[in-house]
Amino acid sequence: MVENVGIFHLTLDSKNRFFLPKPFKRYKKFYITMGLENCLLIYSPKKWNDIILKLKKLSWNKESHRKFLRLFLSRARVLNVDSQSRVLLPQDLIEHAKIKKRIVLLNLLSRIEIWSEEEFKIYEKESRVVLPKVAEELDIEM
Asked: Which domains, ranges and CATH numbers included, belong to the chain?
């Protein structure tokens, strides 16, 4: 992705579209699916192709693999960027992420996460406790 870090606070319009932040405007297409928490995951075409190659190695004979493939891929969509740099979020994914109007985009290394602003505030508050522990494990000064 672009620059690999950052947070953007955005508002959906009446048609469930948002304006793509400037760092992402060079992209005309993304892939989106549901995340493990109440968020959405957006990948560049290159990263999505890497994921598909990994998914092709899963076995349809394993129940957990079948369930993962069905859930992850059935929610996946191509997101096209329109001429005004807007992106339309699918309704089923809006419901998965509990999005109302305000969203938070997190640019996280190889993907973008989209959160409901309300859900992200809760998640961020609950997750802060891991910062010191992981910083110590990675020997990162904070």
From this structure: 7-117 (3.40.1550.20)
